TrEMBL record:
GO MF annotations in UniProt: RNA binding
InterPro entries: KH_dom-like_a/b (IPR015946), KH_sf_prok-type (IPR009019), KhpA (IPR020627)
The name this protein goes by in its record: RNA-binding protein KhpA
GO BP of this protein: cell wall organization; peptidoglycan biosynthetic process; regulation of cell shape
Localization terms from the record: Cytoplasm
Keywords per UniProt: Cell shape, Cell wall biogenesis/degradation, Chaperone, Cytoplasm, RNA-binding
Gene name tied to this protein: khpA
Role description: A probable RNA chaperone. Forms a complex with KhpB which binds to cellular RNA and controls its expression. Plays a role in peptidoglycan (PG) homeostasis and cell length regulation.
Pfam families: KH_KhpA-B (PF13083)
Main location: cytoplasm
Species name: Paraliobacillus ryukyuensis
SUPFAM superfamilies on file: Prokaryotic type KH domain (KH-domain type II)
Family to which the UniProt record says this protein belongs: Belongs to the KhpA RNA-binding protein family.
Subunit-structure text: Forms a complex with KhpB.
């Protein structure tokens, strides 16, 4: 899942080497924390959060067979 998130975000940013995805697993959910360069935060969020919402939609769809709830936080 981390590779999928990086694959989606890498073409959007100017500093692809500073993309970091950290997974935190809890009993009922898995949380992915996405961190990018401060100059790229707006590009990942998009106008009115449209790009962030699209990324979350793809990640949730890819994990549909998982029994745990998936969350993606942008930092």
């Amino acid at each position: 899942m981390e590779a999928l998130i990086q694959t989606i975000v890498k073409p959007l940013v100017d500093h692809p080497d500073q993309i970091m995805v950290v997974q935190k697993e809890e009993p009922s959910k898995v949380i992915y924390h996405l961190t990018v360069h401060p100059a790229d935060v707006g590009k990942v969020i998009g106008k009115n959060g449209r790009i962030a919402k699209a990324i979350r939609t793809v990640v949730y769809a890819a994990s549909a067979d998982s029994k745990k709830r998936i969350y993606l936080n942008l930092m």
